[in-house]
Amino acid sequence: MPDRVAPRDLPSTGRGAWAEPGVEEVAPGVHRLPLPLPMDGLRAVNVYVVEGEDGLTLVDGGWAIPTSRQVFEDGLRRLGHAPSDVRRFLVTHMHRDHYTQARVLGTELGCPVVLGSGERPNLASVHADAEAGDTRQAGTHARLRSAGAEHLHEAWLELAPRRPDALDAYAAPDTWLEHDQDLDVAGRRLRAVATPGHTRGHYVFADEAASLLFAGDHVLSTITPSIGFEPAYVRQPLRDYLSSLAKVLALPDLTLLPAHGPVTASSHARVHELLEHHDVRLAQSLEAVRAGARTAWEVACALPWTRRERHIDELGPFDQALAAFETLAHLELLALRADLARVAGDTVQFALPRRG
After folding, report:
1. Which of 14, 147, 207, 226 has the maximum number of C-beta atoms within 10 A of its C-beta?
2. pLDDT tens digit string along 160-182?
3. Number of C-alpha atoms within 13 angstroms, CB side, residue 338?
């Protein structure tokens, strides 16, 4: 019999134990398989293996790198399976730690890869940049400039992998998901729910009969998901994200199966925490503009970051860039709500609106 780890609500040996190699049975026939990430602040991504009479369904696929592939195959072996048992990939969104290995394996194994249709512009942007030889990542540069954080661009480029992902790892999926719909998968009825915000094409998959929510990066158990971190720019990712959180609250309260972090008991409890976080962030951003900040970067410098409430200067360049992008998203939503006035330009500025 393959080794299996009993389900648990929190890691038994510390906060980071969820990322350790191994297999965790989170429900009958459903297993969490953490796969390593080589350069992200996050150490691993959770891929979920769903057993069925016709073989395996995988929710997300990991990053297409040799170490991930080895851990993936070892994990399946522990469950008494092989890659040839995989029948389909349901991918929550197009980020490389979720999509690229699914796409590569799907091609090798001849099994379909499913992705939300909202990711079409993002995949097109990846291909357009590569075909244009865009080694400077012009889209990211422009967004940093919009946030008033253009000075981070050189450090951002230093973080780029020396060997970028092959374009075939970003080939189109076999099936595009359109709208919310029910899927018959591995003898289960999964509700595919479009949840834009983290990326415009993000989906979660709800197994209401088993009380499980495969949440991708939409709802994470211990960290706040980044907003609008995608190749194709979206003006209002936070508006979309908050609306998507409301859709999760409209589902039953389910066991949360996140893409990063440990499994936890209540999807609703975590959604309420995320909603509260963004309410606080919106209020803090508005107060920073009242105090004289004008750009997203200036506002980000006035806000505390992480649970330790660090100043932005204490963060590395990757997290600084994410902070700038997320602050811009909060300011854009405040402007949409008419709580702030928006002044367009290469660097977007914000001010209190004139009343009367």
Report:
1. 147
2. 665 556 788 999 999 999 999 99
3. 2
